[in-house]
Amino acid sequence: MKKIRILFHYTHKQTLGHTTRSLALCSALCRKSAEVLILQGGLPQPYVQFPEGCRVLDIPLPFDTKASFQAHAVPTSSTARAKFILQTAAEFKPDVFITEFFPFGRLAYMPELLPTIRYLRNREARIIASIGYPLIIDIERFENKKFSELYKAVFSAFDAFLIHSPKQLETRYIQETISSPALSQIHKQILKGLGKRLIYTGYVFPQPTTTGGTLIPIDKKSSTIIVSRGGGAVYPKIITTAIESMKFLDTKIRMILACGPATSSKEMELFRSCIQPSDKDRILLAGHLDNLDEHLRHCALSVSLCGYNTSVQLMRFGTPSVIIPYQNQNSPMPTNDQIARAQLFQEKFQSNILHHDTMTGKSLAQAVKDQLSQPRPKPAPESWFTGAEAAARFVVEGTLN
Length: 401
Known about the structure:
This protein has helices at 17-31, 78-92, 110-122, 145-156, 169-177, 181-194, 237-245, 265-274, 292-298, 308-317, 337-349, 361-372, 387-397; strands at 5-10, 35-40, 55-58, 96-100, 126-131, 160-163, 198-200, 223-228, 253-258, 283-286, 301-304, 321-323, 352-353.
């Protein structure tokens, strides 16, 4: 029997969220005996391990870095990148083309993706979007009629939109955090208009994907706080404030700082300089922590942003948490997935939420004390975490069951 051929496009801004979720999906597709070719659109991440059985091609002239985390400009290299993707598609002849995040986000990638989408659409390949959460990033632009019509045409090219969260779970919190009633209504209408093409798979549980980093042994006897900022693209203040908070916490508490693989050498120098000599055995610093997932499972408490992968792990493990959701001050978008997900954590897992700009070492320490004084939250149901398997089943077999 002929293997189904899948071309999978993803990119990143030196973060791990999109990379990790994409590779978990590709791994599940390989387990379904699919032939998978990954088009990696960001800067190469040498510490990332790709799933066994997948071929990987780096799209030339990558333009997104952590410096452009808050910007979405279309690059001058889009024509050359579009040609590379189209040529790859023509040679590979996929049965399915999967775009990650696009078209709900990553609008800067429209020029490089549309030629291939049109080409494969004419050859009756299935076009599927893999979306982490049900939020259309540039929803405010849909108030412009010309833009709205363009995107209706783009949406019409897709056979399915796989939303990697439990049905309606994050949708509710996203809708509640869109402060503009007009934009909230537009968002509802767009999702409703996608109808049966909108498919909720459940969360994609992250698999270990990094290598060559730091391995810190698990110490189940001590009270360990894990502080992490995802890939390390934003918010160095989380690390410096966490170090400051230790002077307000019990001396028996140990802290591990997972700064993220995108952390620069200058940032690491800054973090090291903040640690007092007397705390060098109490505060452990890592650029990227290869066994972060195991630490999140066993730690007394997590301090982190509210990105997809870390959040999914905290939910499944029932880990007490202090959340500092990322907020893009340069975006007119009235919410993001982290702001919405933080509300979910506060309501369902009794997490403490702090605002990045106003938090201090003292306020973070108090939030940590509050969490440690409460019972551990109940882990989320296992049925929430079916995303990779359900998505792979849908892509390969055409069914979720």
